[in-house]
Amino acid sequence: MPVEFDEFDIEGPVLFIPTRHRDKRGVFAETFRHDDFRDVVGDIDLVQENQSISIPINTIRGLHFQTSPYAQGKLIRVTQGAILDVAVDIRPRSATFGQHIKIELSAENWYQLWIPDGFAHGFKTLQPDTHVMYKASNYYSPEHDRGIAWNDPDLAIDWQLYGQQAVISDKDRKQPKLADVGPETLGQMPPSHDFGALRTSVTALSANPQ
Fold it and tell me: Is CB count within 10 Å lower at the N or C end of the chain?
């Protein structure tokens, strides 16, 4: 397999690491193979590819997801610059509901992060003029486009701003907290679920996979 992979403490996301071949000309790598990808993540087709260019450092995009039947998985990579990539588990019956992973993706490390549907995704740029590309398992649908507040205190995401101001779109400033997103969006919550306990129990997982 020309791409190595690793998993996280939260079930679902997968880190793909392409094997790079270097010589005096530069570098070559197979960055995506459909057969290898499906061997790892299952019977999933990637049907759309998107690109964003974020000029200022500390640009935050997210946290975004789409609802059924247009829920999306995303395979994220950075072709210029670097990001702190974040995926929040919003599967209502998941044991890790409300918890998140985060990892640095960059043009230098060539990492690609697979985020399956059932997660909200966002990132912060670590360098100016950062280019992010991602393949998606479903088409964009404005009617099913949803989000969660990037700074929801219950999620306890450390965006590593260190007192600096984040650059946020007007749309993302108005996103609701996870606790305010109803079952018609996420699905029915288990009777025992306690949003109030999330603030004290959630911790960000290591940026390093297992």
Answer: C
In a domain, 125, yes or no: yes
Q: Which of 21, 134, 139, 144 is catalytic?
A: 134
Domain count, the chain: 1
CA count, 13 A, side-chain hemisphere, 71: 15
Domain of residue 42 covers 3-201
Residue 84 belongs to domain with CATH number: 2.60.120.10
111 catalytic residue (yes or no) = no
CA distance linking residue 178 with residue 121, whole number of Å: 13
Nearest to 84 by CA among 65, 64, 61, 66: 61
pLDDT of residue 193: 52
Task: Please identify which of the residues 64, 100, 111, 121 carries the catalytic annotation.
Answer: 64
- Reported as a single tens digit per residue, the pLDDT across 94-146 is 999 999 999 999 999 999 999 999 999 999 999 999 999 999 999 999 999 99
Instruction: Give, in order, the Cα–Cα distances in Å from 144 to each of 72, 73, 80, 139.
Output: 10, 14, 29, 10
Q: Is residue 210 part of a domain?
A: no
- Residue 122, domain member (yes or no): yes
pTM for the full predicted model: 0.86
